[in-house]
Amino acid sequence: MTAEQQIDLPGEPAPAGAPPQVDNLDALESEAIHIFREVAGEFDRPVILFSGGKDSTVLVHLALKAFRPAPVPFPLLHVDTGHNFDEVIAFRDQLVSQHDLRLVVASVQDYIDDGRLSERPDGTRNPLQTTPLLDSITENRFDAVFGGGRRDEERARAKERIFSLRNAFGQWDPRRQRPELWNLYNGRHRAGEHVRVFPLSNWTELDIWRYIQREKIELPEIYYAHRREVYLRDGMWLTSGPWGGPREDEEVVAKTVRYRTVGDGSCTGAVESEAYTVDDVIAEVAASRLTERGATRADDRMSEAAMEDRKREGYF
Amino acid sequence: MTETTTRTAPDSGTEVELPVHTDLLRLATAGSVDDGKSTLVGRLLHDTKSVLADQLDAVHRASADRGLATPDLSLLVDGLRAEREQGITIDVAYRYFATPKRTFVLADTPGHVQYTRNTVTGASTAQLAVLLVDARKGVIEQTKRHAAVLALLGVPRLVLAVNKIDMVDFDGAVHDKIAAEFTAHARALGYSDDAVVTIPVSALHGDNVVERSERTPWYSGPSLLEHLESVPVAPDPFDAPFRMPVQYVIRPRTSEHPDYRGYAGQVAAGVVSAGDEVVVLPAGIRTKVSKVDTPDGETPRAAAGHSVTLLLEDDVDLARGDLIAAAGTAPRVSDELDATVCWLAEKPLQPGARVLVKHGTRTVQAMVTELSARFDEQELASVDTPDALQLNEIGRVAFRTAEPLPVDDYADSRRTGSFLVIDPSDGTTLAAGLVGLPLAPLAAAVGE
After folding, report:
1. Which fold is adopted by the domain B243-326?
2. B7, B76, B420 member nearest A186 (Cβ)
3. Against a cut of 0.90, is the pTM above it?
4. What would the pLDDT profile of B84-120 be if each residue is shown by its tens digit?
5. A21-206+308-312 maps to CATH 3.40.50.620
6. For the purposes of burial, counting CB atoms within 10 Å of the CB of B63, is it exposed (0-12), middle (13-18) or buried (19 or more)?
7. Hey, is the C-beta of A201 within 8 angstroms of any chain B C-beta?
8. Do residue B234 and residue A20 have CB atoms under 8 angstroms apart?
């Protein structure tokens, strides 16, 4: 397996005239490591946004590889909605202690408790993350914020740069993006502005899973099939938790499910799945007829431009 | 070559083909307004099954909302609100699709708004470009401009997709005439005939996009996707002399690694091995590579595209911004930069302007000392001498830099022959810079 993923070097036996083959995971990994090192070299206070989901876990793995044998030279930032899966928080804490990382937490619950934010009527807290995120960026003077966003996730993301400039209000202006040429990233910004950096821009969901398989990256257990009590709402299997539970007309059933994304518990749905291992998940993703956001995120279904609108306001 | 395994998906029981090892092709698309480029890209995604049911449902719903009888596949790619409202594409968008043979990263560049800016961006990393023309209109001014920009940026291979072939009744003579005209233009830009392929397609109906069409019996070549899957592409020139800009110095200073001092970077060109003689620029210090380290451990050598960490034999003073190069074939080091510049900003370029130049991992102050020529946009073959260079114009510009830079000609090395011009006041990227005159017609036009 590993041998096949090596880059074929010139001088080694190869069919005459054949160009060297570069495995696409090697190319994506090298690109992401290059991006991490550029940011470490050019910014004063970078931070990695970390949700405990698979994309941000892959980000942390790549950051560890980029600076090895030295430690990762920046902290993680978790914007905690308070609607967490226990498995994800346990996983987060374990990862942080295992690699001796620093963790900063911005808590949506604190904002709700002291009245700076109020709960939405639908109970979902994903859109509420923007204010604590921006406040934390300002308070900690973070000037580069790594996110796990991928361009294949959504149409508005497809037009985002790898280095995405945000104004002092954290806003993205799609019409004023800098052209991104070669691999020369322009991270210059004025005081108060910051840059969102997306090292996984060119990865697809399948690439992420193939990389998790190849690198043997551990994930929160909820990514794999397990029995869970769930109820159906808006075509998604939701689980009850501190964020609320089924209404009277919603029946709770036990299903074998897994999560394709990890987000706020109130609006992240599980999918019925028998995928117990990474190999199973890869086969499932390859055969899936739904995108991960379409399958499991109520917040992205709101309108044709739901993601674009939230990004303009300073969302991830 | 590509291997695949077959697995059964756990839920559906469907057999899926999974690549064990695929290579990556980076391509760009370019076309004019109404050539049907978004439709072609939508068709490629749709027919390679890269579009999933919920995305397709959204397109069906949106098409119906707009009163269309058939789904408009361009809605798959036009992502921003203004684009959907106006039915246009504003910005470069990146698309991903894969077949068992290859993985594709596609930079979809719009044709009408700021065409140079967008085409330059998409072309800067592309190994191949697909240009579209409308079969009814043939090769137009903008096709020639796009091809010239692609040639300038060094995109190694071109495909001309002659779209809307159904609108000319699948007439082979129409296709052949367009193909001959385009091939002649590409040849004048320096492309060899085997680097240019012409394919008659109907993006709307799918002819020759993924499957070969029975309605073009006079065409014996591959479908567009077959060509993209099989065209040979080298990731980066491996035979070029070794170059690596230093990104970051790794010094753990831990009890386990008290003396480790590694220079992290991505190999920009060529190959590096332990034992190689190298020179550190601009200082000009010679030393040897003692070890090529990677995140997965030591390796005997690394090639262009690899992110590595080099350890050197001597304790030299080296920092981010320096370039490590093969000792025998080092680039020239100079504080005068003679370059071809694609101007990408609203604010025009004027001689005397103070700017920043970002080359490799080094950013230096610079002054525009001379604007000697503006190139005609179609052939890049004729010139005039303007007072200023405007948005989307291409010209020959000389810079004096505050510190010397180690540069190659862009024609020899895309990575170490390129630079950004940046506005020091607000950080805007003003221009794409290419060292030297990367295209034969440019040199001829200025009499060199």
Report:
1. Elongation Factor Tu (Ef-tu); domain 3 (2.40.30)
2. B420
3. no
4. 555 555 678 888 888 888 889 998 887 665 667 888 8
5. yes
6. middle
7. yes
8. yes
